[in-house]
Design goal:
Strand content: 5-15%
Number of helices: 7
Distance between the termini: 45 Å
CATH architecture of the largest domain: 2-Layer Sandwich
Number of strands: 7
Helix content: 40-55%
Largest sheet: 7 strands, mixed
Length: about 350
């Protein structure tokens, strides 16, 4: 389950731009992969260090540098020095609880977004921060952990099909953002299936575990909304084409991503309404079951009230009670009790209490 609020390790008094990783602690080595391409060629390699990426900085081709792991602040600092990235932006990269945002500079753009996936094995939502540095001829992506949703983009680059190899870095950024947004639909489909199953379970046989699942989904919907809503404004700024790094022929594709983002937001709001309605149905179902139990207990208690009254009278220790000497007194008392029970049951049924 994703955390809505993370504890940060920042300490009061540190100067702005101090790099402190606030995500999960990891010991794995940071991996750097490079894909350099244009319309006629492609070069893919694993970089052993930041220095291996420097030859691609001034090349006229499009270079995509993907950094997997932001826990090693030393490497992040080296990227900052090599590509002239402001320390405040480096701080945002290693501080992995940023909201989606866009910051424009003269030589590059800085984009933060959330990459979401659903772990079916553990039935939980997984989230990681993706930071993009977009230059005129390079894109640097920073990820928290290995594994992403960018494989379709890599396949399109390697297959030399489509328009991606004919376009520049702005189209590559569009493709990366589009891959992230498209994956939101897959995540929401999983939650849609879970909500439908929950609705059937709530109507048939709700259990305390059902309430736990409902609360877990509500929590995830809040996180999804928190992750997607700001992204709408990020894409809206990009599609306005105010940055010189975004060409006019890419704006139309960004509009398409913007529409997809709006659809994702609508789906999130729909699921939030559905899960809230499911919670109301669950509470009503539990309340109705409790009312049924209370009704049965009330009817049983009501039936035994006159029987207790009769038994109480003949349980009194008075010497002069004429009925005590009757030969048929005991059968008559039992008969009266049975008759009273029968009359009460008939009356309850006519009143539709039963």
């Amino acid at each position: 389950m994703v955390k809505l609020f993370r504890k940060t390790s920042k300490k009061p008094g540190l100067s702005p731009g101090t790099l402190i990783h606030t995500g999960e602690k990891k010991d794995e080595a940071v991996k750097i992969s490079v894909i350099d391409y244009d319309e006629t060629q492609i070069q893919e390699r694993e970089a052993a260090s930041v220095e291996d990426c420097l030859p691609f900085k001034e090349k006229p081709t499009v270079t995509w540098i993907n950094v997997t792991g932001v826990h090693d602040v030393r490497i992040i600092e080296e990227f900052g020095k090599a590509f002239s990235i402001h320390p405040l932006l480096l701080e945002d990269i290693v501080h992995t609880d940023q909201r989606p945002k866009l910051e424009e500079f003269d030589e590059f753009l800085f984009i933060v977004l959330k990459m979401l996936s659903y772990d079916e094995a553990n039935n939980e939502l997984l989230s990681e921060q993706v930071s993009l540095i977009v230059g005129s001829n390079f894109v640097i992506s920073f990820q928290e952990r290995e594994g992403d949703v960018f494989n379709p983009v890599r396949v399109r680059i390697k297959s030399a099909k489509g328009r991606i190899k004919k376009k520049g870095c702005d189209y590559l950024v569009y493709a990366l953002i589009d891959a992230v947004v498209d994956h939101y639909f897959l995540v929401l489909e999983k939650y849609g299936e879970k909500v439908e199953i929950l609705q059937e379970e709530v109507l048939s046989q709700p259990t305390p575990h059902t309430l736990e699942v409902i609360q877990g989904i509500k929590r995830d919907m809040i996180y999804l909304r928190k992750s997607v809503w700001p992204l709408r404004e990020v894409i809206n700024i990009l599609q306005r084409g105010e940055s010189a790094l975004i060409s006019d022929n890419v704006v139309i594709y960004l509009r398409d991503v913007y529409d997809h983002t709006i659809q994702v937001i609508d789906n999130i709001e729909t699921l939030r309404d559905m899960i809230s309605g499911t919670l109301d149905v669950y509470l009503s179902s539990v309340s109705n079951k409790m009312n049924e139990v209370m009704k049965v207990l009330t009817i049983v208690a009501t039936i035994f009230i006159p029987l207790t009254f009769i038994a109480g009278i003949y349980g009194m220790n008075f010497k002069y009670m004429p009925e005590l000497d009757w030969h048929w007194g005991y059968p008559i008392a039992l008969g009266v009790m049975v008759l009273l029970v029968g009359m009460m049951l008939i009356w309850f049924r006519r009143k539709r209490f039963l």
